[in-house]
Every structure is written in C-alpha cells, then in structure tokens.
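Title: [Solved] S-methyl-5-thioribose kinase 3D structure

Original question kept below for reference.
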Amino acid sequence: MAAEEGSFKALNENTLVDYIKATPSLCSRLGNDFGNLKIKEVGDGNLNFVYIVTTDSGSLVIKQALPYIRCIGESWPMSKERAYFEAITLQEHGRWCPDHVPVVYHFDRVMSLIGMRYLAPPHIILRKGLIAGIEYPLLAEHMADYMSKTLFHTSLLYNTTAVHRQEVAKYCGNLELCRLTEQVVFSDPYKKSEYNRCTSPYLDEDALAVQKDDALKLEVAELKAKFCERAQALIHGDLHTGSVMATQDSTQVIDPEFAVYGPMGFDIGAYLGNLILAYFSQDGHADAANDRYAYKQWILKTIEDTWKLFEKKFTSLWAENKDGSGEAYLSAIYNDRVFSLAQENYVKDLFHDSLGFGAAKMIRRIVGVAHVEDFESIQDAKIRAGCERRALEFAKKLLKERRGFQTIDAVIVAIQEVPF
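Solution (posted by the thread starter after getting help):
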C-alpha cells in the first residue's frame, strides 16, 4: 500500500478510466477488459466520491477522499489522509472478520483512493432497507459476529501491551476525523452552532431544551472523555446503518474512515442507536396498507438479539483466549472464579457505555448537523417531527439513566413505553 508517484487530483468519470487503465491491480479485477464500461457515482454527498465501475468481465468500487467535507464545501477543510485509515482498517477488520468486510484491491495514499470489492445487487444500504420495511433474518447474527471479532481481537484482551501501544500510536494520526466526531456528537448539539438544524418550527423548543439540560451535559461530558481518552480497541468509528450493506444472507460493513482506537461501546452503541432511530421512524412510513407494527417488533427483536449474540460471542472469544497473549487479565492472576467476575464487570460496563454512546448518537442525528434518511424521507414535517421527538425523548432518558438498565430486555421495554 505504498504511496504512488505524483500528486493528488480529484478524479471524475472520465479521468478515472485512465487511472484504472494505468493500475494493474484494478485492471485485473475488470478482466483487463473495458468492454461495455460503466461508471456511476453513488456517494452520499457527505464526505467522498464513490464510483461503481463495471465491465462485461468484472466490477469494483473506487472511493476517493477529498481535502474537505463534500456536503459543506471547501469552507470546512478535512484531511484526505482519512482514506489511509479507512484502507488499513478494512484490512485489519477483514483479517478478523472476512465474511463481513469487503476486500481491498488497491490503495493509493497520494490520491487518497481505495479500490475494493463491489457489493453487487441485491446488496443495498441497510438504512434504505429499514426504511423500505425489509426484514433481514441474519442481520443480528452477522453484526454480532463482526463487532465481537473486530473489537476483541484488537483489544488488550487478545494483544500484548506492546502491540496495542504500537497500533494506538498509528491511529493517533486520524486526528481530524476524531475531532469531527468530538464536535458533532459531543459538543454541537448542546450549544448554539451554525451547523445544527432540526425539523423547524416543530422541534425548535426541543433543540433548545437539549442545550439547557445540565444533567444531559454532564453525562455527555463523561462520554466525550471516554471517547478521547480510552483506547480500548480499533473501532469503526461511524458504525451506523448507512455503513452496512445487506441482503437476506449477506452483511458487509463499509466506510471505516473514522477508525481509531477508542471505547468499544462507541461502535456497539452507534449501531444499536441507529436501529432505535429506525424503530421510531416507522410510524412516519406507515400507511393504510401497512401500519408497520409487525416490522417495529422485528426491529426490537433485532436490537435484542444483536446485543445478546454479541455478548455471547465476545465472552466466548475471551474464554477461548484467556491463556493467550492478551495482557489485560493475566491467567496467573485471575483464577476461574475471579476471571468470571472480571468478565461480568467488563461486559456490564461495556453495556452501559454502549447505551450512553448510542443515546448521544441518536441526539446528534435529530438536533445536530447530519440527520438520517429514516426521518428525512418522511415528507410530512409535522409527522416527521413527532417521530423525531419520541426518539429524542427516549435518547435523553437513556443517556441520563443508562446505569439503571441491567439488561437489553429492559431497554426494549423502555422503548415501547415512549408515549405517542
């Protein structure tokens, strides 16, 4: 993955063809055949350009980072080095969970460009599937598998302190993306910010209430400190339902450009929090033909199963490797009884971290800078605001009272108790 010769330039549909033709690792994925070449730009418009490239003989995806935030423009500069961290994270996470991470074919550090596997239809972005009311029978199993394997194997439960510190140091370079997270998740929603927005005028008072809620601010300050200070594992850093592509039997995690060594609960919480947002959005997508009640129950079951399967897989990996190289809990110190207690305490803290981070991610998606299509695709602003308000009220409760929840079942009950 060494840097290529030359200098950075943003590619378009025309110049991308010349780039591919000059890059053997990409040409080979197209069978060195440019017959019926098709290129389509499919980026969501927030940060990067993403191109799907297909020919009669093959396919791939090209992703290129820009030196600014695409959805805002050059007024908000952003290091294009994020592509480097995305590429090495795809490789590292793919090492531990190849079934759920797309393969990287090529990386050009100077051009901030990644060539990777094209996840062909029927793969779609999970968020779009949730809006459409599609059930994914293997989703909980697959995401629990991905999170347990990637988080465990990049933590001190598996690695030596020497390896861990080296990896932490490597990822410290992803400073700007971490700073962006700190700003948009832990700071902007709780103060006046030019980038904040909400479904106005319906949620104006709700957004103001967040900024005046001192108890909420104290809780989010604790979470921000954990995010900044705790290098627990290599986290994806932006694991929402827009960072997952799915079919009935395939689940692929994409876009880890925010990757850093941070608290495990940030990934778990971000994912579960986005499922909760999907749940609260369903009433806005209901119609006379489908009240979405059954689908809402499926989402709740998926939330429940995801955590329970994650806990089972994570603790099993830990038990299987307790005599290995991991230096967090040395077997010479922790006999079976103490080891069991250590696991119990660790998982309990991880659960509460996940609830807190998930709640913070929910709040920022309602009154912060970047909203979610789950709500944004609800055309009637008043109905949309009603769905968002219920999600926001639950998120505030979850953030402030997370330590009182001892099981995921209790969280599910609390979600269902949110009044209409």
